[in-house]
Amino acid sequence: MAEPSSGTPSSGNRWLAPMLITIISGIIVGIAVYWGTVGLPFLTKSDDEGSSQETPDGGQTTGPGQTEDPETPGPVLSFQERLAGQWQVQSWTEAGGPVTLYIEVESGTMTVSGGDADWRLDIDQRGEDNSPQPGIKCGARATLDGKIEGQPGGDRNAEIAWTSDLRSVDHSTTGEDWIWRALCGWTTIGGRYPYEVTLAGDATAPATQMEMSNQWGTFVWVRSS
Length: 225
Hints:
Order of helices and strands: HEEEHEEEEEEHHEEE
CATH class of the largest domain: Mainly Beta
Strand content: 25-35%
Shape: rod-shaped
Radius of gyration: 43 Å
Number of domains: 2
Distance between the termini: 123 Å
CATH topology of the largest domain: Lipocalin
Helix content: 25-40%
Number of helices: 4
CATH architecture of the largest domain: Beta Barrel
């Protein structure tokens, strides 16, 4: 007849609980080590990269759903828009032909507004210093193809205190107007001598310097305002 159980665990069962505790502890330690060496740095890196990433169009992402656009240039200005404003003459260089005038441009200013260009120059013959100061006023138009064309007649064009020597050089009586064609781009007898214009500076902003040339000479202007 079998003896009743005393309730004492067998030797195999005595070692089962400690083994399970050891295995579970090892698994927890392993997870902790993996998280510290791989998981957490990966998440931190992802957060850092997500705070500022370059987008395909060149922008920068600053966070979820936020994009900082790159600085974009302004619209390209038209020739007349880049020309508009106040100018100061820096120099005028005579071409030296087909006729040599032996005149000097001593100073001058230009105003460009709404496509109209008006300039006033102090002039004299080389080596002379006349008083009152001779000068000339010129009226012109800035064209859509990048030129400045003189517009004869009217109050926008005038001689100022010309000497007899300047009138002689100009050939005013015959309408050849050598000084007018050089400095204003036209003659009384119908000649037209438009200026080719080169503008300096960025095409999205008003020009900072201008070169204005016809076959008689070249002006260099700098912006004053």
